[in-house]
Structures are given as structure tokens and as C-alpha cells.
Amino acid sequence: MSASLGRRAVAEAVGSAALVAVVVGSGIQATVLSRDVGVQLLANSLATVFGLGVLIALLGPVSGAHFNPVVTLAAWATGRRGEGRLTARDVAVYLPAQTVGAIAGAVLADAMFGKPLVQWSSHDRYAGHLWLGEVVATAGLVLLVFGLIRTERAHFGPVAVASYIGAAYWFTSSTSFANPAVTIGRAFTDTFAGIAPGSLGPFIVAQLVGAALGLGLVSAVFGGRTPTPTGTAPLQGEPEVAAPTLT
Known about the structure:
The protein has one domain (about 5-220): Up-down Bundle (Glycerol uptake facilitator protein), CATH 1.20.1080. It contains eight helices and no strands. The protein has helices spanning about 5-35, 35-65, 70-75, 90-110, 130-150, 155-170, 180-185, 200-220. Helix 3 (about 70-75) runs antiparallel to helix 4 (about 90-110). The longest helix is centred in the first third of the chain and has 29 residues, at about 5-35. The protein is globular and about 50 Å long. The chain starts with a helix and ends in a 25-residue tail after the last helix.
């Protein structure tokens, strides 16, 4: 049974909030427990992998567990949402839900650790090599998500997407934000996982470029046709939803 747009929007907001709470909260906890930056990043990435996998598996059957505007836009651009289509109305509801959820998640994480509820990040991430890292991270994410759909292996989504994001924490210079909503949410916390507001614009542009590149790679590698699933569950396990997430 297809969930109503309202329920899907709530799932996207809750999932985005929980994801950012995991990212920000584990970053705060890591800096409390260790002064080693490598250990801090390891703790942050592991928590994100586990949290993201759980959220995709849990909320995928409701909304597709996008939690990420570039995934939603890519799903809309490919013209499919499982057995139906992701409409412009769906996109117009999903994107604000994801962004508001991400901001709420950052505020929640700060509240849990006794930090100021809203404190703009001072963590400057304004550099060309970081933008390149975001292009690569986002392109890889979109290639993975829609490549799994094209090859009818979408049931691997929760493990594959979470694993990719965990790896991208380490092999990209930007530590793989790869998600405009999460990027905006992380500007609201002056902690380990934060990003300065002045760094938001180029990061989001790089993510959009990466998404377009990722879709191009999907067509180049898998061909231009998106098959309708037959007997294979979509990425999060629900027939009516096509694509999953991101961080």
C-alpha cells in the first residue's frame, strides 16, 4: 500500500533529523572521548554507517528513505518512483521536509550534549579540493543508488549505501557530505561535524554538479532505460518507492 504524501514527508523529516543527529552527536561524543582526529573521524564515520543503514531499512518502505535533496531530484529527473512517478508536488514537499528535519537534528544533537541549541559553525570548509571531493562523493552516491535500481539489486540498498558513505568519509577530502539538506543542518552546530555558513554555497553547488555527473554515469554504464522492477524489491523494500538516501 502506498503511503500518503503527508506520511512520506514525515518519514523524510524524521529520517533526516535522525541522520543529522547521528552525525553531529557522534562527532561531539568523539571529541569528548579522544583528542586524536583520526579516532574522532573513525567514530563519526562508524556511527553514521550504522545509523544510516538502520534508517534506510526502517523508513524506506514509507518514503524511499531519500533523506537527501539530490537523490529526490535525481529520482524525479529519471521519471520513476517504483510503479509510479515522483511528481513535482512530491519534490516540493520532500525537499523542505528533508531540510527542516536536518536542521532539527543538529539542534537536537546539541541539546543532548548541553551545547547551545543554535550556534553557527566556525568550521571553514571553503577550498577547491573540498568541492572536488563533494562532486566525487555525490556522483558516486547517485551512481550507486540508481545503478542498483538499473541492475534490479535494490534490496542491497541499506547495506550498500551506508557502506559507501562510510568509505567516502575516508577517501574524499570533504568527508563526504553529499547531501544539501545535511550540509545546511550541519551549519547550525559549532562542533566537530559543522560547516561554516559561508562554505555552504559552493558545497551545495558541488553536490548538484556531482548528482548530474552521477546520472550521466548511470546512463553511460547501465544504459538509458530504467527497468520496472519485476519480483525484486526497490532500494528500500517497498514497491512504490524508487530511490534511497544519502548522508
